[in-house]
Specification:
Oligomer: single chain
Strand order of the largest sheet: 2-1-3-4-5
Number of helices: 5
Radius of gyration: 13 Å
Strand content: 15-25%
Number of strands: 5
């Protein structure tokens, strides 16, 4: 993996939804190093208003969160026709088949197991940004 920032990375907005401050901060650092614009949300409700206000190009969404979990958050985002094609990548500390399948059922494109590396995160962004 090269350390070059993709030419148009700065125009890409990535939203990271996670109730863990540590995960949000490390994702923010990695994504900013990759040249992306970063938005952070600490739960599903916070995320829904940010999705509406900022229209991110890609969303990373934790599964286990208080109030509104990642599956519910993803399903609500995907039900809105404006965001139906926005890639959502689920984040979880569990690497379970059931979680991956359930994530796909609510419309997520991919699944990243925590803790993730900078390379894994940036690779996921590149892969789904091109596909979008």
């Amino acid at each position: 993996m090269s350390n070059e920032v993709p030419a148009d990375a700065s125009s890409v907005k990535v939203l990271v939804i996670d109730d863990s401050n540590t995960i949000r901060r490390s994702a923010e650092i990695f994504l900013k190093q990759g040249g992306y614009q970063v938005l952070l949300a600490e739960d599903g409700f916070d995320a829904l208003s940010k999705v509406n206000d900022h229209e991110p190009d890609l969303i990373f969404c934790d599964i286990l969160m208080p109030r509104l979990d990642g599956y519910q958050t993803c399903a609500i985002i995907k039900r809105n026709t404006k965001f139906a094609n926005t890639p959502v990548i689920m984040l979880s500390s569990k690497d379970g088949l059931f979680d991956k399948a359930r994530g796909r059922m609510v419309g997520s494109q991919d699944y990243l197991t925590k803790p993730f590396t900078k390379d894994q995160l940036l690779q996921a962004v590149e892969q789904h940004r091109r596909a979008a």
